Amino acid sequence: MFQEKLYEAIKEKQNPTVLGLDPKIDYVPKSVVENASTKIEAIDIFNRSLIDGLCDLIPAVKCQSAYYEQLGPVGALLLQKTMAYAKEKGMLVILDCKRNDIGSTASAYANAYLTDDFYIADAITVNGYLGSDGIEPFLNACSKYEKGIYILVKTSNPSSGELQDLKLESGQRVYEKMAELVQNWGSELIGKYGFSSVGAVVGATYPEQLVKLRKKMNHTPFLVPGYGAQGGLAKDVATAFTKNGNGAIINSSRGLMCAYKKHQLPHEEYIKAARLEATNMKQALNQYITWEE
Fold first, then answer.
1. Which of 98, 177, 261, 262 is catalytic?
2. What is the H or E stretch that residue 109 is in?
3. Nearest by Cα to 95 from 77, 82, 106, 108
4. pTM of the model
């Protein structure tokens, strides 16, 4: 099952982080852009270099599909190429595409992203706000193909509360009701380490809600965006884990891709900067994790 593969990869590297590859040409170092013939080639080189430079430290990569889709058909090909290269280097691949629709269309999305025919993702992000009939095809695909999904519960953006924090007649917040649904949807896909292949997206920028959700969602793994560039800190995400680094994976996109800017290193040293940032992130998180059984 997906979560078993992910946890074993995390434990091997003792690092519960994921490299987010959300490429904008503004993020690509000048030295890479100048030596490439096209924007697509520059991003391709940048992605591959980051994967090469971090695959021994970081167990998984997350590609945000929107950054590739905006480049048109060649961007879709670049996305496939990037994901395949990450898998060649032994990394698990999460595709952040936030797909869903009515049942028949959800089936098409599940076939597109959770088989190995095209995008070869190990897991994808999903929007659960269409209800159970939009989720069922993804659950079936997870079971059939040993893949995973992460369903939006409490997102990291500043305006998420406009809907997600509204109170229902039951007294629950909308995000709490979604958490309840996600926990139930994943109940048949729990692996040997105690977590389901059906996870939740819970932002690092809302640490109080993260604490509350971890207590309620005892079999649900978390994908936690918002670390680093969006303001989330290690202490904010520490409660996402249960024990031995289990139960969560923490994403950093700009924090790693643009580390050369943060550390004020020459743009030619972007891999060195990314490794420095990845090591710092790992050490910061490991203050709160005990890896011994």
1. 98
2. helix 103-114
3. 82
4. 0.95
